[in-house]
Amino acid sequence: MLDKNQIAQRIAKELQDGYYVNLGIGIPTLVANYIPEGIDVTLQSENGLLGMGSFPTEENVDADLINAGKQTVTMLPGSSLFSSAESFEMIRGGHVDLTVLGAMEVAENGDIANWKIPGKMVKGMGGAMDLVAGTDNIIVAMMHTNRAGASKLLKACSLPLTGKNCITKVVTNLGYLTIENGAFILRELAPGVTIEDVKAATEGKLIVADDVKEMEF
Amino acid sequence: MKKVVKNATEAIKGLENGMTLMLGGFGLCGIPENCISALVKAGQKNLTCISNNAGVDGFGIGLMLEQRQVKKMISSYVGENAEFERQLLSGELEVELTPQGTLAEKCRAGGAGIPAFFTATGYGTEVAEGKETREINGRMYVLEEALTADFALVKAWKGDTMGNLIFKGTARNFNPMMARAGKITVAEVEELVEPGELDPNHIHVPGIYVQRIFKGTDYEKRIEQRTVSK
Q1: Which domains does chain B possess?
Q2: 3-class state of residue B186 by DSSP
Q3: Which of A36-45, B84-93, B105-114 has the lowest mean pLDDT?
Q4: Could you tell me the residue ranges of all domains in chain A?
Q5: Percent of residues, chain A, with pLDDT higher than 70
């Protein structure tokens, strides 16, 4: 079974040289720690920065330079700054090559829910609806089941949707799955996880790929 | 042409109960601190505030919420404020949650004279409920209407007496679009200079959009998530 860092590490293998990437809050942020050697990617922060660097040292903290999680950050050489409207032109216009974000639920038809739980205080969708509508290549990073042990890979989302038919790849603590033609296709198993484990934890339609293999790092 | 005013109190003259305001900023980054302080002091009520976020307890729009000055918020994310949550759950406050990119574009459209636009964002979700949808080249889109405001309150790094503005870092965020979408746009700046001192090549907001400008004071620039590397 994978921990959060290993989920991020597996997702990082999907990065290609030259990609512009938007990483959501939580596990997705950890992907930045595992960018493979020789691969140059540019991180987009939707509050108006391309070329986001690491967190600053204490003496370099700048209140005017934060990421979408409101954390202080730095800029790498070659960065650019822009307004929120331009930022979402990049996103909506399909210029971002990869978006990685978390989810509460994903359905076998590619629907995603990650912003609202009825009956609980709603904080808002932020940029998530724009990101899932604007990027073709989206990877969901999440645990396969929720804290109560219920599957998060469902026939249909029960929570209010963030986007419809937009998710094609999911990396969980149990494995790597794609979504094609109304089903989850199990492509890779996390070390120590069996096909039966994934079947038991997946409520939606699951197809085991003929060439399913153990995940490599 | 005299756009320069003495301070925030003078800058928000004519801002009355029940008006619609735009306030620049993302989180607490690039918010018009001086104008918010003046509003809290002046005490206008029943305001509709268009702002990506709603401040935190004790700072930013949070200060206006504490005084019950806000009737409605139009925002994309409001999760950092306990007083906000209390007022929302008790029904004192109305909130219209809008996807962040749609909110930015609504403001941009408002300033650009475009009454509405189609976007794929939110299609098939509750955001699209009650809105016109249309298929264009095989994909479904939602019609979103533009936003304008009686007053737009923005914060820039540098400005000149003609209202030209330059922002710094990620403090630009919603400020440029909101500056364009206000009937009266008030810009507060850290440095106010004479015409000619700013390089015209570097202007982010041309002065045509700005009606009032002043040099702000005592910027606190609070940081929500101070994160450092070792």
Answers
A1: 8-100+147-215 (3.40.1080.10)
A2: strand
A3: B84-93
A4: 4-34+96-214
A5: 100
Given A14, A37, A46, A59, the catalytic residue: A46
What number of other Cβ atoms are within 10 A of residue B208's Cβ?
12
Here the tokens at position A179 are 């979504």
Percent helix, strand and coil across chain B, each to the nearest 5: 25, 30, 45
Known catalytic residue at A89: no
Own/partner long-range contacts of A12-20 (Cβ < 8 Å, ≥24 apart): A12/A36, A13/A217, A14/A98, A14/A139, A14/A169, A15/A39, A15/A41, A15/A98, A16/A41, A16/A97, A17/A41, A18/A97, A19/A97, A19/A98, A20/A44, A20/A50, A20/A90, A20/A95, A20/A96, A20/A97, A20/A98
**pLDDT at residue B163 greater than cutoff 80:** yes
How big is the A-B interface in CB pairs under 8 Å?
Answer: 169
pLDDT for res A153: 98
Instruction: Calculate the average pLDDT of chain B.
Output: 96
- In the numeric block, which tokens belong to residue B138? 């095989």
Nearest to B169 among A81, A83, A134 (CB): A81
Q: Which residues of B touch A95 (CB under 8 A)?
A: none
Cβ separation B170–A123 shorter than 8 A? no
Chain B residue numbers touching A111 (CB-CB < 8 A): 124
Of B42, B86, B83, the closest CA to residue B61 belongs to B83
pLDDT above 90: percentage of residues in chain B: 94
Q: How far apart are the first and last CA of chain A?
A: 13
- Nearest residue of B to residue A84, measured between CA atoms: B173
- Residue A41, CA atoms < 13 Å, CB-side half-sphere: 25
* Residue in chain B lying closest to A161 (CA): B125
As a whole number of angstroms, the distance between CA A185 and CA B60 comes to 47
Distance (Å) from the alpha carbon of B108 to chain A's nearest alpha carbon: 7
User: Chain B within 8 Å of A182 (Cβ-Cβ)?
Assistant: no
CATH topology of domain A4-34+96-214: Glutaconate Coenzyme A-transferase (3.40.1080)
B16 in Cβ contact with A48 (< 8 Å): no
pLDDT in tens, B206-220: 999 999 999 999 999
Using CB atoms and an 8 Å cut-off, which of residues 93-122 of chain A contact chain B? 111, 121-122
Q: Which of A37, A35, A33, A40 is nearest to A17 (CA)?
A: A40
CA angle at residue A74 from A70 to A76, to 5 degrees?
Answer: 135
Structure tokens at A94: 């399909």
